[in-house]
């Protein structure tokens, strides 16, 4: 199929040009009305992609209801159809789309819930990797410890929000559960999404812990990350934060900054 | 920060790290997880996306005009309080 026909077909499927006009101009009438045949294809595309988004953003869908979700999804699909042949890549810009959607302006936390769900989805599909064995760090001479750099596990994602989106998410993630009311007065959430083995997990962090791990994931030394964390909260407990990171599988590797003698 | 304070804080950091590392080595695997993690299985983990109704429902998208007023109508009505804009 020539490229201009392909482009016109895509535009007709997405409703960017009049589908009936495209059908009349380009589709052969073989006894089944071309416009209706194209309509079947349009439905297939829109419904399948809406279902794909719904599978990635189940809490957003639950929060707004199926009808509103279908509307928001359709707008997204029409503006940003898949750029990859792999359906699991689809939905990367959905949170930003919700943030700009006038009809969702009354739910200012919605886009951040979508960011969290996308982080979850990315974590689920990230490369498998074994968590860093703390025994490797135990061999490092103590005076060298502050300058080491830790490599984040590939499934680690860090999300912060001015809204309690972690609470909103946990209250709505299980469809069998009727959520208790969540108050937006609960304030910000600092969240860690990780998958040390097979199950994606969500941990609620303090602001300082979150800053610590964000800095480490950006290749700061442990000493540098500690410094950033105590700027946020002077009572930040480094030993406890590091232990929690190591036991929950936040890191995959370590850069010791050169050889040392054991 | 003077060199002396810096060296001192570096020693404190090193000591705290050593405590954290040995704590992680004695902690049973996943101990931290048990306390504050929420593990929820992803719905339809390995399912292919199939839309069973797409061919049957030819009218569904035809009539889905955006002109009517769209109001979110899910569990969002259980989220209340606070200001409507982030602080």
Q: In short, what is this structure?
A:
Chain A has 262 residues and is mainly alpha-helical. Chain A has twelve helices and six strands.
Keywords summarizing the entry:
heterodimer; A: 262 residues; mainly alpha; 2 domains; 3-stranded antiparallel sheet; two-stranded antiparallel ribbon; 12 helices; 6 strands; B: 87 residues; 2 strands
Descriptive account of the structure:
The complex is a heterodimer of chains A (262) and B (87). Chain A has helices spanning 3-13, 19-26, 34-56, 58-64, 66-79, 94-99, 110-125, 134-138, 165-172, 207-217, 222-232, 238-248, and strands spanning 149-152, 157-161, 182-183, 189-194, 201-205, 251-255. Chain A has 262 residues and is mainly α. Chain A folds into two domains: 1-107, no CATH class; 129-262, no CATH class. In chain A, the strands form two sheets. Chain A has a three-stranded antiparallel sheet with strand order 2-4-5. Chain A has a two-stranded antiparallel ribbon with strand order 1-6. The termini of chain A are far apart. The relative contact order of chain A is 0.10. The mean pLDDT of chain A is 92. Helices cover 40% and strands 6% of the residues of chain B. The longest helix of chain B is centred in the N-terminal third of the chain and has 24 residues, at 3-26. With 87 residues, chain B is mainly α. At the A-B interface, helix 3, helix 4, helix 5, helix 7 and helix 8 of A face helix 1, helix 2, strand 1, helix 3 and strand 2 of B.
């Amino acid at each position: 199929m020539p490229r201009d026909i392909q482009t016109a077909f895509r535009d007709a499927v997405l409703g960017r040009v009049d589908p009936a006009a495209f059908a009349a101009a380009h589709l052969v009438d073989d006894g089944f009305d071309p416009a209706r045949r194209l309509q079947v294809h349009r439905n297939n595309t829109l419904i399948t992609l809406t279902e794909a988004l719904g599978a990635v953003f189940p809490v957003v869908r639950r929060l707004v209801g199926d009808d509103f979700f279908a509307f928001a999804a359709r707008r997204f699909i029409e503006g940003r159809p898949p750029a990859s042949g792999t359906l699991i890549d689809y939905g990367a810009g959905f949170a930003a789309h919700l943030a700009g959607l006038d009809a969702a302006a009354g739910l200012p936390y919605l886009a951040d819930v979508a960011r969290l769900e996308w982080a979850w989805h990315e974590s689920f599909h990230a490369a498998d990797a074994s968590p860093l064995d703390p025994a490797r760090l135990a061999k490092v001479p103590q005076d060298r410890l502050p300058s080491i750099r830790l490599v984040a596990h590939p499934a680690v994602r860090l999300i912060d929000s001015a809204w309690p989106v972690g609470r909103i998410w946990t209250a709505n993630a299980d469809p069998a559960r009727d959520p208790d009311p969540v108050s937006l007065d609960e304030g910000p959430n600092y969240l860690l999404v990780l998958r040390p083995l097979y199950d994606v997990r969500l941990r609620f962090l303090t602001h300082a812990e979150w800053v610590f791990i964000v800095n480490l994931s950006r290749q700061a030394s442990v000493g540098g990350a500690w410094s950033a964390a105590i700027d946020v909260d002077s009572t930040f407990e480094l030993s406890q934060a590091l232990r929690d990171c190591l036991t929950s599988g936040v890191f995959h590797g370590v850069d010791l900054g050169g050889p040392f003698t054991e | 920060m003077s060199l002396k304070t810096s060296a001192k804080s570096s020693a404190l950091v090193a000591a705290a790290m050593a405590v954290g590392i040995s704590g992680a080595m004695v902690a049973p695997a996943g101990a931290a997880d048990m306390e504050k993690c929420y593990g929820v299985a992803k719905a339809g983990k390995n399912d292919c996306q199939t839309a069973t109704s797409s061919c049957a429902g030819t009218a569904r998208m035809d009539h889905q005009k955006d002109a009517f007023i769209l109001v979110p109508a899910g569990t969002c009505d259980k989220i209340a309080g606070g200001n409507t804009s982030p602080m």
